[in-house]
Amino acid sequence: MATRRYSAFAVAREATRYHSGWERAWASPAPKAKYDVIVVGAGGHGLATAYYLGRNHGIRNVAVVEKGWLGGGNTGRNTTIIRSNYLQDASAAIYEKARSLYENLSQDLNMNVMFSPRGVLMLAQTEHEVRGWKRTAHANVLQGIPTEFIGPKRVKEIVPIMNIDGPRYPVLGALWQARGGTARHDAVAWGYARACSAMGMDIIQNCEVTGVRQSGGQVTGIETTKGAIGCGKLAIVVAGHSGRLADMAGFRLPVESVALQALVSEPIKPCMDVVVMANTVHGYMSQSDKGEMVIGGGADSFNNFTQRGSFHHVEETVRALCETFPIITRLKMLRQWGGIVDMTGDRSPILSKTPLGNCFINCGWGTGGFKAIPGSGWAMAELVAKGEPGPLSAEFGLDRFREGRFIDESVAAGVAH
Amino acid sequence: MLRLTCPYCGAAADETELTPGGEAHLTRHGPGSSDEAFEGYLFLRKNPYGVHFERWRHAHGCGKWFHAARDTRSLQVFGTYSAQVTRPPQDIIDRIAATHPGFDWEAGQ
C-alpha cells in the first residue's frame, strides 16, 4: 500500500474536495504463513521495535500481532510524560535516547505526535527528596543530560498556581528538566503503525497469541486465534501480559502485573504549562491541549489485570494534589481508567534474550513506559536483529537478577517512574 | 475496593486496612542453594492471569499474616486461610474448581 504524505499541502488539497481523499493510515492484512520476525504486541514499544527493525536494520518481512486494537493498552492509558532525568547511567542512556528521538519523531514518522517539550518539574517535598534530586542532578551532569535543582521561589515562578508553603507538603525545591514534556500518546502508536505499514510490514489486530511453537530449543512460530504463523525470530513486547507469553514460551519472569490508574478533569483555561510530578504523594499532573488536567495516581499494591484501579488511590492522590494546587479543589473529574503495568524487582525494564532461542523479550517498563517508546524500540530492534544486546540494552538483561546487577531506580526515582 | 476476611480475628477488612505480601507458598531458599533456586525464590513470580494465592497482613487490625485465594482477572475472592499451611484448604480448592473447571492446585506448583 503506497502511503501518501501528510502535509499542509495535503490538508489544503483535501479541503477543496470535502476531505474525500484521505486513506486508511495502515493496511489490515491477513497473516502470511511465515515472517522473518514476529513482534507480539502492537503498543508503542512493539510498533517502535518493528519500525526500527525496518529502518535501522533493513528487516521488513515483519508482522506485529495484537490481541486487541493497536495502541489500546498502556500506550493509550498513560499520562504521556516524557523525561530522562534518571539516576543510573544505563537508564539515563536509554531514556535520553528516547527523549531525543521524540524531538524529531513527527518528522521521522510524517505524523504529528504533538511532542511538547514544555518542561518537567519533579517536586522535592521532604528533605530526603531534596538530597535525592540534588544527587540526580549531579548524576545528570555527568551523563550529559541537562537538568538542574531549583529552589521553591523558582518553582513558584514556573507554576504560579502552586502552593509552596505546605504545611503538610511544603515545596522545598524541584528537579527541573526543561527539555522534558508530553506527546500525544495515540499519535505515537498511529505514527509508528503507519510507518511500519508503509514499509510493507503486516499489522494484524484482533489476533491473540495462544501458544509459542518451538523445536530443539528454538522458536519456530506462534499459534494465534487467526491460525499458526511461522517466524524466524520472536519479540515479546506485551507489558502487563508478559507473564502469560513467557509461560507459553516456557520460562519465568521477575515481573508482577498491577493496575496503575489515571484520571482527567473537565477542561479549564490554560493554567499550568509544565508537567509537575510529586513523588512523595505519588501524584503527577499536566494540562492537556484541550484544557483537561491530566492526573496520574498510584498503582494497586496487589496483582491484578482489571484495568480499573481503585477509588481509594484516587482519593489519596487527589487529596495531596489539592493541597499543592488549591485551584483544582472544585474541579469535576471526567474520566478515570487503569492500565496493567509490569513491575520488576528493581523497577527497571528488561530487554533481553530468553532461555528460548531466537525469542526476545522487552518488558518491565512498569509505570513509566511511554517516555521510553522510541529508545526502547531502537534498542530492542538492535537486540532482535543482531541476536545480541547493543550498548543501550546491554545492562537490561534477564540475568541481572541472578547476578545481582540491579539498575536500582526504585530508590533513585522515588515511586513514580 | 477489595475486601478480605481475616481468618484470625474474623474481621471483614477493606483493602486499606491490609498490607499485601506477594505470592504465597514460596519455597524459601538460602545459603547452600543453587543460584537458580535462589533467583527463583527472590525474584521469579507466577504473576498468574487468573487464580492466585497470596500473603496479606491485617496491618491495621490484629496484625497477623494470612493467606488469600483470589482471581486476578475478576478480583473474585475464593477465601482466606491460615498462614501456617503449605497447601490451601480443600474447601477453597473446591470453590475455585466450581468456577474454574479443571483447576488443579498441584499442577500449578
Automatic annotation (TrEMBL), chain A:
GO cellular component terms, alphabetically, are: cytoplasm
For this protein, what is the EC number?
A: 1.5.3.24
Superkingdom per UniProt? Bacteria
Which cofactors are required for activity? FAD; FMN
EC main class here is oxidoreductase
Write one Pfam family the protein is assigned to: DAO
Q: Looking at the keywords, is Cytoplasm present?
A: yes
| Keyword match Hydrolase | no
Where would I find the Rhodanese domain in this sequence? 37-81
User: What GO biological process term is on the record, naming one?
Assistant: tetrahydrofolate metabolic process
Q: Where in the cell is it found?
A: Cytoplasm
Gene Ontology terms for molecular function: nucleotide binding; sarcosine oxidase activity
Please name the SUPFAM superfamilies in this protein's record.
FAD/NAD(P)-binding domain
Q: Which family does the similarity line name?
A: Belongs to the SoxB family.
State what protein this is by name: Sarcosine oxidase subunit beta
- Highest lineage ranks of the organism? Bacteria, Pseudomonadati, Pseudomonadota, Alphaproteobacteria, Rhodobacterales
UniProtKB/TrEMBL annotation, chain B:
| GO molecular function terms noted in the UniProt entry | sarcosine oxidase activity
GO terms of biological process kind: tetrahydrofolate metabolic process
UniProt name for this protein: Sarcosine oxidase subunit delta
